[in-house]
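User: Hi! Is it possible to get a structure for several chains at once, not just one? Here's what I have:
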Amino acid sequence: SQKIEQNSEALNIQEGKTATLTCNYTNYSPAYLQWYRQDPGRGPVFLLLIRENEKEKRKERLKVTFDTTLKQSLFHITASQPADSATYLCALDDTGTASKLTFGTGTRLQVTL
Amino acid sequence: GAVVSQHPSRVICKSGTSVKIECRSLDFQATTMFWYRQFPKQSLMLMATSNEGSKATYEQGVEKDKFLINHASLTLSTLTVTSAHPEDSSFYICSARDSLAGVGETQYFGPGTRLLVL
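Assistant: Yes, the chains can be modeled jointly so their relative placement is included. Here is the combined structure:
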């Protein structure tokens, strides 16, 4: 069966460190993989999209890698700040249109001073 | 960036009543909008794809007669939960794709609507 797995345990890190979140998937062949941020009681906010032929994508303090052999994406936040505390969701599309997204359950990140 | 709004943000209703939730794309046109549902500590689950001017496409297990979707214009989709029951209490989130965006461009999500059925 198809699965998208994110670490359900909260990730606690100290301010200034790099946070690394993992997204593993099985029985998908995604053309695109996306990362979203979701704050409590709010809708997801788009962060980054990476295509299957891209190994890495960066945006300011964010970096995403996409390994289609390992079926894994890593999401890094460098120089983390308390304001980065939120739940981070990965989402896959294997229809080739980035339209029909399937979401992982998300990983809660808590950045402390 | 593109903005999607939802109304209401929160609604409490009695069991058996119907509730309508609106989703609007404020600064772009969206031929396709999506409706998701999210239970506490769970992932977003796609309920249906709303297509402007045509019938919505529902995901497996979602009752189309219970969750009525209307996409009457390029900027508005509505979800009506008919004869709501306590088990329908959830966080409903819509998203929209810019019609002019290329393939692979992302969806923009609304802020969500919290529904509580008593």
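Chain A touches chain B at residues 4, 31-32, 34, 36, 41-46, 49, 51, 89, 96-106 (CB under 8 Å). The mean pLDDT of chain A is 92.

User: Great, thank you!
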